[in-house]
Amino acid sequence: MIRDDTRQTIKFIIWVIVIAILLYIASIFVFFRAGSIGRDNDRQIAQIARQKTAITNVQTYYHLDRGVSSYALKGTDSKGKTYYFVYLPKTKRAYLYQASKGTSQSKIKSTFTAAHKGATIKGINLGWYQNNPVWEVAYQNSKGNLGYTLYDFKTGKAINEVDNL
Questions:
Q1: Which of 126, 131, 146, 157 is an S-S bond match for 165, by CB 3.0 to 4.6 Å?
Q2: Domains plus CATH for the chain?
Q3: Contacts with 11 (C-beta within 8 Å, 6 or more apart), sequence order
Q4: Measured CA angle at 163 (ends 151, 139), to 5 deg
Q5: Rounded distance, CA 165 to CA 162, Å?
Q6: Is 149 exposed, middle or buried, given 0-12, 13-18 or 19+ CB atoms closer than 10 A?
Q7: What is the pLDDT of residues 89-133, one digit of tens each?
């Protein structure tokens, strides 16, 4: 026969395991719900781009909020031509740019790296700033401070920079 104190210990261990499993399942649910907003926005912009433009294949999604929330994507048409699509959800305006008439993400990355030695790029996003499409490079400098630089999409020139955030 199992003693009373052993039985209580087994019950306690079972309850701890059940609670741990429930907390694990709840945390998965919370993280899934938190990410669903971003996935929904990506799906929505891809749908708009496919309906309103020649883009058939989406390659990359971007989001930028510099006073105006904007969603963007990079995609190709059926002939393989590359485009950038920028959507402003508040005004429901959309802009389509041929990649050949703007600056690519890789070009912006190399321009930034040449100008900011020792900085670590945290992210590059395409979006909208002061009625123009821009690339934003978020980075951490060699001192550990955060910053960002905005580059004009069409010319590739730096238009705004904030360092030491």
A1: 146
A2: 1-165 (3.10.450.40)
A3: none
A4: 65
A5: 7
A6: buried
A7: 999 999 999 999 999 999 999 999 999 988 999 999 999 999 999
